[in-house]
Amino acid sequence: MKSIDFREIEGRSLGYYALLAFFGVLVLIGLGAAYYMETNGHHVTGMNNQIVWGIPHVFAVFMIVSASGVLNVASIASVFGRTMYKPLARLSGLLAITLLIGGLTVLVLDLGKPDRLIVAMTTYNFKSIFAWNIFLYTGFMVVVAVYLWMMMERRMNAHTHTAGLAAFIWRLTLTTGTGSIFGFLIARQAYDSALLAPMFIIMSFSFGLAIFILYTMAAYSLTGRPLGDAILRRLKNLLGVFVASVLYFVVVYHLTNLYMTAHHDFERFILLDGGVYTALFWIGQIVIGSIVPLVILFHPRLGGSRRMIALGAALVLVGAFCQVYVIIVGGQAFPLILFPGKIVSSSFFDGAIGQYRPSLPEIALGIGGVSLALAMATFAIKVLPFLPASLADSDVDPHQAAVKATEAAHA
Amino acid sequence: MSIDRRQFLTVGGAVLASAALAPGMRLIELAQARSRDEAVTSLQRWGMLVDTTRCAVGCSACVTACNKENGLEQNVRLDIRPQWIRTVTLRDEHTGYVQTLPMMCQHCEEPPCADVCPTGASFRRADGIVLVDRHICIGCRYCMMACPYKARSFVHENLTDQRADIPRGKGTVEACTMCVHRVDEGRIPACVEACNSDGGKALTFGDIKDPASEIAKRLATQQSEEIRPDLALDTGVRYQGL
Question: What domains are there in chain A, each with its CATH number?
Answer without folding.
Answer: 14-209+216-389 (1.20.1630.10)
